[in-house]
Structures are given as C-alpha cells and as structure tokens.
Amino acid sequence: RHIFGQLTVEENLKVSLSCKRQGSKTIPESVFELFPVLKEMLHRRGGDLSGGQQQQLAIARALVLNPDILILDEPNEGIQPNIVQLIRDVLLKLNKEQGMTIVLVEQKLPFARAVGEQFHLMEKGEVVASGPMADLDDELVGKYLAV
After folding, report:
1. pTM for the whole thing?
2. For 145, which DSSP code?
3. What's the confidence (pLDDT) of residue 44?
4. Is 146 exposed, middle or buried (0-12, 13-18, 19+ CB in 10 A)?
5. If 0-12 CB within 10 Å is exposed, 13-18 middle and 19+ buried, where does residue 58 land?
6. Residue 72 C-alpha from the chain's centroid
7. How far is CA 119 from CA 64, 111, 127, in A?
8. Residues 6 or more apart from 8 whose CB is under 8 A from it?
9. pLDDT, tens digit (0-9, with 9 covering 90-100), for 25-49
C-alpha cells in the first residue's frame, strides 16, 4: 500500500502535502469526511493500522493533493467487504460529485462494474476490447478474463 509504517497517519498525509508547490499545506477536511477513521487515528502509526485502514490512508494521501486523475491498482485487494464497499462509495462520490477521473486497474469484475463507466481490456500490453461498461458481456469476459 506504500504508506510509511513508522510515521503517524497525520505525518503520512503531510508527506504528500509537502509535494504541493502552491496552495494550502493543511490536510483538507474533505479527506476526513471520506475516511472518518483516519481522523480518529491521526496519531497512530501507519504500520499499526489494519489493511483496510492502510488502504484508506493510501488513497487519502493521493487525495490531499486534489488531483484531477486518481489511478488505483486493485484498491480492494485483501480488504474486508465493508471497507471494499466504503472504497466503492468514495470512488463513485469522487467521480460523480467532484468530476474526478479515476483509472482503475482491477481483477474483481463486480467491483469494476460497480464503479466503472468505461472498460479497456488488455492482453500482453495491448488493448483488445473497449467500450461502455454495459458492453462488457459474458463473451468478452469468457474470452479475456476467464481462467
């Protein structure tokens, strides 16, 4: 999850803020609205958090920079179901309410279908199928995604 295990939640978030060239260097309250558990655990070390809490912290570290695009690689890998739902809801909110573009690399098809509007299937580094998520039918799944 690429968090700093020895640093506190607050320090992890401030590390990202140090990359900002201009604007506020304070942690936006919106991050804590999306992930309330992080506010409760500001002074806990990142390494002491559960896997789901660490994933929330990793996403929050990106969000403090107010990006236009958020790229996530399997954000629910090894995460308990209720946190998967929270992350799904956060991604939908960021996209729908803030207009943030989210590039999601995901193997779990139900999660991808729940948050995605478009899909691109790749094989050996090449895009082999693309379209609206509604067009990701059983034939494409069987051809490129089934084991």
Report:
1. 0.90
2. I
3. 97
4. exposed
5. middle
6. 5
7. 27, 12, 10
8. 42, 43, 44, 45, 46
9. 899 999 999 999 999 999 999 999 9
